[in-house]
Specification:
By secondary structure, the protein is α+β, with helices and mostly antiparallel strands. Helices cover 41% and strands 28% of the residues. The radius of gyration is 29 Å and the shape is globular.
Amino acid sequence: MPNFLLSSTAFRMLACAVAVATAPLLAPAAQAQSDAAKPVAIVGVTGYDALVSDIDYLGQFGGQVGAGKQLDNMLQLFTQGKGLQGVDKTKAWGVIVHVDGAVVCLPVTDLDAVLGLVEGFGMTTSEMGDGITEIEMPNQSMYVKKSGNWAFASAKPEMLENAPADPGDMFDKMTTDYDIAAQVMVQNVPEMFRMIAIQQLRAGAEQGLQQNPGESDEAYQARRESTEASIDQIEQFINDLDELTVGFNTDADKGNVILDFTYSAVPDTQLAQGIEVYKDAKTLFAGCLKDGAAVTFNASVTTPADLLDDYKAQMEGQMASMRQQAMNGIDQKLGDLNEEARATLKEAVNDLLDALEATAMSGKMDMAGHVAVQDGKLTAVTGGYTKEPGKVEASLKKLSALLSDGPEVQWNADSHGDAKIHTLLIPINNPDEQALFGESLEVAVGIGPEQFYVTAGPGAVSMLKEAMDTSGSSATPITPVQFSLALTPILELIAKVEPNPAADAMLNAVVTKSEGMDSVHITAINTDGKLRTRLELEKGVLHAIGAAVMEARRQGAGAGF
């Protein structure tokens, strides 16, 4: 999808998954009979033994050592020592969902033993013929049929006819990379249900589109148009979407957990073209990244002109809405400014939005940066592409004119290559802020023919020049979108500026247990023609979360809660 719309990708995926998954539940069951045999979703779960092992691993972070074994012991207790007798605990299992029902697929070594477990909980079983066993439960029944080494169960006996002969390979494939994975085959959802999903989203959005007290007609209209444009994008997304997979995995060997959102598109659609732009990404701002920094980020995607044309009207509408909201915000929230000052501020904001719109319309997004802790002080470096650097510079000069009583900007204080460098020295009087930045904060802004750089911290000009030199003039291959946050330097800074028991506990856990793996990573990348967005938590982060939870419990116990 176009880089301009990247920020709403996660929302669209979540909204689509929820809406499409629930639409069949709200529609007449008699519809779409011809599509009944096609699964609309599959859930795969790794084998019971592997799950127990992963629960053991995760339990340690919350102080629950041996949590998996405790769970297994509880199961033994409730089943009078039988456990999951008759179930093959080494194999993956799952659920296959159709429009008109679902089938649970369970690997078994002895179905009679499994049915014996069920009877131990007071349920009754009876043979119905054709190999189907009915399990009578309060208020409903389940129906079970064995095929090979698999037992299939459903609330509807006719659903057992759609069960595959051996779903093992399918579940094994889903759980190769994940402990639990859910896959939605959107194109197998009948069009009627997809329309219901879209109608649900529109109805929900409409409920929040009432004009707020004190909201001007212009601001309300801008907000309404922006929301409607977002719903239109979600509708297009649903129609173009082929498959959506959500996967969670715990890896004790690597010491991390991951949560993936992966989707593919119907060929020759806007979405399919959009996924392609996440291949072979390169950046001209690699010098703005730094190993070991507290925060690093980049977004480097180029959208082809033909795809931009498809989204041009939507992008222009969003920009118009953004402008209107910005102008209304200035009038409503900065009413104390005189008319001339508000006019200047509006011009400055419009210049920045002009630069943003021109850059978005060019189809090129390329920016990178980092925040680091250097000699106990925060430093920051960022750089990026801009189609209209003159607009950026004009905006900065107008904003500077408004702050006539503030620190003076040194325009054209230096230069490097083809970039002009402007500097600013901001006095820091607050003791807490001095601990972060020192007695003054150096800021440098570099403006080139099609690029900008901003640095802050001691030696800001030197950092800016180094970032430009390290970036060079040739593009560097890079992950299209990535964000990383390292806990150790951030927690060390918190301990220095505003120490507290929770932060101290987290820092101690990270320093003593992370083994250098203390980061949160978010990435988006094209893998085998699919777009995968991944959240990864390294083990230091898990230890820090667990330490914070245990410290909160300790404080709660101390307070008598």
